[in-house]
Amino acid sequence: xxxxxxxxxxxFSTVRARILISVLAxxxxxxxxxxxxxxxxxxxxxxxxxxxxxxxxxxMLAVVLELLSLLxxxxxxxxxxxxxxxxxxxxxxxxxxxxxxxxxxxxxLGAAASTVYFFRRLKHRGVSSSSSAVAIAGVNVMTVLSLxxxxxxxxxxxxxxxxxxxxxxxxxxxxxxxxxxxLGAIYSDRVVGAAFRMIVWLRAVRHKFNRQVLPERSxxxxxxxxTPAELLESGTxxxxxxxxxxxxxxxxxxxxxxxxAVLGVILAYALGALAANLPITPGGLGVVEGSMTVAxxxxxxxxxxxxxxxxxxxxxxxxxxxPLGAASYGILALVSNRQNVEPVLAVDEGQGRGGVM
Length: 357
Known about the structure:
Elements: H1 4-37, H2 41-52, H3 56-83, H4 90-104, H5 110-124, H6 129-157, H7 159-162, H8 168-186, H9 188-207, H10 217-220, H11 228-255, H12 262-275, H13 287-298, H14 303-319, H15 321-351
Helix pairs in contact: 1-15, 2-14, 3-4, 3-6, 3-11, 4-5, 4-15, 5-6, 6-8, 6-11, 6-12, 11-14, 12-13, 13-14
């Protein structure tokens, strides 16, 4: 058998390998961005001038707003986990949310990768698989629902201008669909229970299994009892997540002297945020900038200033999160590795140096 020292060294090596992989992923995203922007030198020249002219207080305010947005996002999962009887600290969920967001923005199909990472971090903290799955699904439903509400506000307010971009019926359909998903999350114990029993019944019909092999409900469904206050709290945090991020876009539009109707900006932002979830490029890189810029121009913005405002906004909402997420990933990896190694070393000290062979 391997000694406990070799086990500890192996775990440290695993952490270093994970950090190296995350750094390489960030480098790949940076390389893709350089390639994408290489043919846009004229627009970039204007962006550089606007960036250099940004007052320091504007930069600091944008950073604070993005941090508040990330804090609000992590608070959504915190509210849901508390309702599931698995409360977690605000600082831990902030680090996990930052790392998961950066991971989602770093690789293709990043939404799946970030979901798996979030799930594993919750499992590492002792949250059951079913509760982790319900919490993550609830976060996704709450954030998308709140984004749809923002889009609905933009559509209703800028109805005449928005007809070519998106219809009210489309947004209402999305809201209804995700509303049904929210009900499914709230009553997931019944939904999962019914689905599980249906699967067992079908297997019993096909293979003549004994239906009594069905496990007890407590073993495969979480104890879900969300109160209206908890749902309202998580939904409010989800809305604040978008509002703080949207405020950064407004800030950059003001800094670049772009004149766009407020409700038009809200709708353009919602369209860009929805485009970020398309599995085309990591974090919607290029897709978000293009869709958001086109929408802003459609609502009366000047092309040059709109491009500058969107790229400056993405510097804070996308690029700033990458190093923050990488640092959070490293901190969580080191802390969890230390927690795993210390019990092993304690056993080693009790049995003598060299461990058990």
